[in-house]
Amino acid sequence: MRLRTKILGAVLSIVAVAVIGTLIAMRYDAPCKAAAPQPSGTPTMKAVLRRCYGPADVISIEDVAKPTVGDGDVLVKVRAVSINALDAHVLHGDPYVVMRFAGGIGSPRSPSLGVDFAGTVEAVGKNVTAFKPGDEVFGGKGGNFGAFAEYVKLNAAFAAIAPKPANVTFAQAAAVPVAAVTALQALRDSGQLRAGQKVLVNGASGGVGTFAVEIAKALGAEVTGVCSTRNVEMVREIGADHVVDYTREDFTRSGERYDLIVDVAGSRSLAEYQRVLKPDGIYVGAGGSSVRGRWLGPLWPMLKSFAYAPFVSARTQTFFASLNKDDLRFVAELMDEGKVKPVIDRTYESSEIRDAFRYFDEGHARGKIVVTFDEPGTPANSDTAG
Questions:
Q1: Which of 118, 170, 180, 313 is least surrounded by Cβ atoms within 10 Å, i.e. has the fewest?
Q2: CATH superfamily of 178-318
């Protein structure tokens, strides 16, 4: 028995040391790496990179090799990009439990940044028939990211890329991919939204929230948006039937009942949400934009929902959006019909991208923050951009 106890104690000690070592390693931020020089004669482009984890100060704009086009590829000249919470997490390397394992412990495996983009097709591979040079497109760059650059290369068959509607600018189109597809999938897929139902969007003034309000209205719902005082009029203008100022009213004690709650803010408990859900209502956790913290961050409200779900009667859905071309085309149709119009808070030039991230990190943006990669005389946010 003593030997067994000693062995168990030794095993537990090893496990404890391993866990502590892993936690320390996940918190470690290595110094920024120096950029490798490009071989002489290599065609280059400007790209927004970060070679270490940290605040916006670690961002650099460097000359990197311009992508070469394969047989199935599309090369897009980027005109505008937008910042999402995902981009900030990739920059900072948090929450640790996800971003360090996925992106690299100590320092990022890839220095690239950015998902959302809009621009003009520069070239296509010989097997590509869906696009041609000159087409105006928008989409999302998955994998190792890299949309924050002068050019972005995508596989035409699998990438999330779609034609840009003629009635929106490049800046507006760049604001769409991650946020709008997240809102659409939260409402239509996880929330099983049907026309005539009552929907509450908590966090209605941010990137995902503004699209959730507009898309829910386009799908025929009666929409209530929850936001702060400064955003009440804006949320009403984009189509919300009712707007609740959470600084003055507790919507969980309003007596209203909803068929669907889309929770972008992550600011209330599942038990509180259940008070305003109909008996067959659905709660969808679509992030936790109001939740900070370097270990779990916006994952915390999702984990709480999983933990509380067996003890409440509400149907709960927590998901991560999957960016794809079909949903991009669906949102493009809504924009073309005038049912969805991206809300842009501020627009920055590419040389100001550090300031754009700093503003995003303040957590008060209304709608999206856009960064333009303009050519002289062709502003991406002008009415003539499309």
A1: 313
A2: NAD(P)-binding Rossmann-like Domain (3.40.50.720)
Domain residue limits, the chain: 44-176+342-372, 178-318
Q: For residues 90 and 145, is the Cβ–Cβ distance under 8 A?
A: yes
**How much of the chain exceeds pLDDT 70, in percent?**
79
Tally of CB atoms within 10 A around 178: 24
Tens of pLDDT, residue by residue over 292-318, are 566 455 555 565 555 555 655 567 777
Compute the distance between CA of residue 247 and CA of residue 270 in angstroms, rounded to an integer: 20
Phi-psi region of 136 (alpha: psi -120 to 50; beta: other; left: phi over 0): beta
E-strand ranges in the chain read: 44-50, 59-65, 73-83, 116-124, 136-140, 151-155, 160-163, 198-202, 222-227, 242-245, 258-263, 277-285, 315-318, 344-349, 368-372
Cα–Cα distance for residue pair 258/161, rounded to 1 Å: 34
Inter-residue contact 174 to 116 (CB < 8 Å): yes
Query: What are the pLDDT digits (tens) for 85-125?
Result: 999 988 988 765 666 656 667 678 889 999 999 999 999 99
Tens-place pLDDT, residues 355-383: 999 999 998 899 999 999 975 444 566 54
Sign of the torsion formed by the C-alpha atoms of 231, 232, 234 and 239: positive
Alpha-carbon span 154 to 350, nearest angstrom: 21
Matching residue, tokens 């949320």: 235
- Residue 6: the pLDDT is 60
pTM value?
0.86
